[in-house]
Amino acid sequence: MRKQKSSLLKRDLQKFIDNKMATIGLLIVLILLVLIVFAPLFASNDPNLVDTSNRNQPPSSEHPLGTDRIGRDLWARLLFGGRMSLIVALSGIVSAHLIGVTLGCMAGYFGGKFDGIIVFISEIFMAFPSGILIFILVGFLGQGVGNLIFVFAITNWTGILRIVRGRILSLKEEAFVEHCKICGVSSYAIMFRHLLPNTMGPVIVSMTLGTGGLVLAEAGLSFIGLGVPGGIATWGNMINAANSLQAIQEQPILWVSPAIMISLFVLGINFLGDGLRDVFDTTM
Fold first, then answer.
1. N-terminal to C-terminal alpha carbon distance within the chain
2. What is this structure's pTM?
3. Predicted pLDDT at 284
4. CA-CA distance, 210 to 187, in Å (whole number)?
5. What does the pLDDT read at residue 118?
6. What number of other Cβ atoms are within 10 A of residue 42's Cβ?
7. CB-based contacts of 233: which residues, under 8 Å, 6+ apart?
8. Is 137 within a domain?
């Protein structure tokens, strides 16, 4: 059994390595994560320190990317802003998947009226375009990191619910499930210890690709003033701070640098997600 698992792991690893775009995506994501997670090691300046005597400074040894219109260090804001953008995106996607996976397991396993109710609720959420629903909820709840995470969680759980529910519906007919019931194993143990691990491949792929989508969503909402409060450094807020014609023409670094970071991260996470899909999708 151990040799079989080891050979399967080697096969999957080789499959991932053979996908050059997935390898490039993993490398991009790892480099950005190291820069962001260990931001204090790479940026010694305070990202929120206002120094009006050093406004609009060009790149220098003290400020590698220069400073913005109120003297804040752009390099520090780029790294620490990426940390907040990722915290919001990861918290939102993890929360959404906890909701979707849990309800999907229960709906698929128990079926009947409970399944019908969950599917009906998910269809109500899916009836609204996600962008419009996000705008409505953010406008109602107001700005705030916690509010934004809640909105992302409540608007992104339906997709993974459908995936997990479908897998559970097919898996619960397998012989090992009947054997577990005969042996007195509880329904929740069957769901979360025996059935759920067999659905983790699509869940991991969904979380990976969803993270890139929420990074873009956070940046868009922060850019128009509906996301993270302006006083907190995020990639979206950095672009919002450069939304004047003068800044666009005279200091393109103000918006180009966060735009490049967003593009690189989303590109890398999409390449990585496609590679993971190749590994976990047994039909390919």
1. 24
2. 0.86
3. 44
4. 30
5. 93
6. 14
7. 47, 48, 77, 80, 81, 84
8. yes
